[in-house]
């Protein structure tokens, strides 16, 4: 979860987590690439993603990182916009099943983040469904300066620690905090926790 320069998923939990993606992503990449008459080599050149990696993604033989997804979405951005604008009078409704939702797992294996945000907004807005076992810790490195994270608890109890300051929230409560410094989210108490996490990247710098 971070800005373009540092790439999403920079936190240690993200680096150790596995993004479980279904074949839908590969099918979408392939459909858009062919619709705009791009060869694998051309998409590789435009995105900076190796041709072999793109081929594996299209064949659902690899689980791409968020950084790779971001590069491909940027390379195909114009194509996506043209597809959505093909008929402005038609409503746009996109559905993702639970099986199609990427999952990130913390280093201790006790916190899971389902990526329910749209891949096209990764550079500036990310949101996740958080589920955690008691004692689970999501330890993250700093994001881009000025970034803000919001954690809305629906079940259980969580605490956030930043710079030695700890604040807790229970069901129905929300914590908002700068995430441009080392920070940790913990599931406290004896029951599992659930929350929605929203990360606003490139927020106004707060002195």
TrEMBL record:
PROSITE patterns: HTH_CROC1
The keyword Transcription regulation belongs to this UniProt entry's keyword annotation: yes
UniProt entry keywords in alphabetical sequence: DNA-binding, Transcription, Transcription regulation
Domain HTH cro/C1-type, residue spans: 29-83
A Pfam cross-reference name: HTH_3
Lineage top rank: taxon: Bacteria
CDD domains: cupin_XRE_C, HTH_XRE
PANTHER family to which the protein is assigned, alphabetical: HTH-TYPE TRANSCRIPTIONAL REGULATOR, HTH-TYPE TRANSCRIPTIONAL REGULATOR SUTR
Protein name: HTH-type transcriptional regulator SutR
Gene field: sutR
């Amino acid at each position: 979860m971070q800005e373009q320069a540092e790439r999403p998923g920079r936190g240690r939990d993200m680096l150790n987590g596995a993004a479980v993606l279904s074949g839908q992503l590969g099918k979408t990449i392939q459909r858009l690439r062919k619709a705009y008459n791009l060869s694998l080599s051309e998409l590789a050149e435009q995105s900076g993603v190796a041709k072999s990696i793109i081929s594996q993604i299209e064949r659902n033989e690899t689980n791409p990182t968020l950084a790779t997804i971001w590069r491909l979405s940027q390379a195909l951005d114009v194509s996506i916009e043209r597809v959505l604008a093909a008929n402005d009078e038609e409503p746009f409704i996109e559905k993702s099943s639970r099986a199609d939702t990427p999952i990130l797992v913390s280093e201790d294996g006790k916190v899971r983040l389902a990526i329910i945000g749209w891949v096209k907004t990764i550079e500036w807005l990310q949101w996740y469904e958080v589920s955690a076992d008691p004692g689970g810790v999501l330890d993250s490195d700093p994001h881009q300066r000025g970034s803000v994270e919001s954690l809305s608890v629906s079940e259980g109890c969580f605490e956030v620690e930043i710079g030695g300051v700890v604040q807790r929230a229970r069901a129905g409560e929300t914590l908002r905090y700068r995430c441009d410094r080392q920070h940790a989210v913990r599931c406290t108490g004896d029951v599992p926790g659930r929350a929605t996490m929203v990360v606003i990247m490139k927020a106004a710098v707060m002195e």
